[in-house]
Design goal:
The chain is α/β, with parallel strands linked by helices. The chain has a single domain, classed as Decaprenyl diphosphate synthase-like (Undecaprenyl pyrophosphate synthetase). Helices cover about 40% and strands about 15% of the residues. A six-stranded parallel sheet has the order 3-4-2-1-5-6, sandwiched between helices. Helix 4 links the parallel strand 3 (about 100-105) and strand 4. Helix 3 (about 75-100) packs parallel to helix 4. It binds farnesyl diphosphate. Farnesyl diphosphate binds near residues 39 and 192. Farnesyl diphosphate binds near residues 24, 63 and 88.
């Protein structure tokens, strides 16, 4: 697979890059291939993204692999994607573990086939001591549902008498999100030229810099990653304050 030991760390890399991997279908259609081939090629680009983040010293990478809305796709495509996720974990886990990657998942995993749930848990357990790069794969993930779940958990605490509604604040709600143990993304990249978040990390992206690349996901490589980070470096992040 070729994830090499990183040697070229950036001076101040984004701590967390999240990617909406879009354009697999168009990549395939343009080559008169089936959409499934586009996803297969997309899995190869996942390796490029992981390798690039490791080499540049980015500590958190989150990939939007399957949204809670993607179940609406044809059954054949959904099944193929599930097969690819399984294949990816099985094939890459050993090397990911060896090079210091911690594998993590967000999303409602309970609706996924049981073998994927088991494999995902296994991958998390096997790599939980790693710290070089946290690779989070969003599967059956939808940000609105994630926020609703957090609200329900807060409501249960209130009902049980353990929380005063007046004490509900941003930090408390964020503590019940799937991403509670990671920093918010500094940079969100979407490939394929589309310019929207599509229900991805809506809470966590409050102050993320958004970079939209024209490249289709299967063509994504380290140069694309560097191009996005370059654009990110040019942004002035004020968080609602004024520039000094
Ligand atoms: C969006 O492109 C892509 C997806 C819904 C699937 C993403 C999955 C992969 C990249 C496969 C491998 C992933 C892992 C983590 C191993 P699209 O199909 O909507 O493209 P289109 O808009 O051109 O039709």
């Amino acid at each position: 697979m070729g994830i090499v030991q990183s040697t070229t760390f950036l001076p101040d890399p984004p701590a967390h890059i999240a990617i909406i991997m879009d354009g697999n279908g168009r990549w395939a259609t343009r080559r008169s291939l089936s959409r499934l081939k586009g996803h297969e090629q997309g899995a190869k680009a996942v390796r490029e993204a992981v390798k690039g983040c490791r080499e540049l010293g980015v500590p958190y990478l989150t990939l939007f692999a399957f949204s809670s809305e993607n179940w609406k796709r044809p059954e054949e495509e959904v099944n193929h994607l599930m097969g690819l996720f399984k294949f990816f974990i099985k094939r890459e886990l050993k090397e990911l573990k060896e090079v210091g990657v911690r594998v993590n998942f967000i999303g409602d995993m309970s609706r996924l086939p049981e073998d994927i749930q088991k494999l995902a848990n296994f991958a998390c357990e096997e790599t939980h001591e790693n710290n070089d790069l946290v690779l989070t794969i969003a599967l059956n993930y939808g940000a609105q549902a994630e926020i609703v779940t957090a609200a329900k958990l807060l409501a249960e605490q209130v009902k049980a008498g353990n929380l005063d509604p007046q004490d509900i604040c941003e930090e408390k709600l964020a503590g019940f999100l799937d991403t509670s143990d990671m920093p918010d993304p500094d940079l969100i990249i979407r490939t394929s030229g589309e310019k929207r978040l599509s229900n991805f990390l809506l809470w966590q992206s409050a102050y993320s810099e958004l970079v939209f690349l024209d490249v289709l996901w299967p063509d994504f490589d380290k140069t694309c990653l560097e191009q996005a980070i370059e654009e990110y470096y040019g942004r002035c992040r004020r968080y609602g304050a004024v520039s000094v």
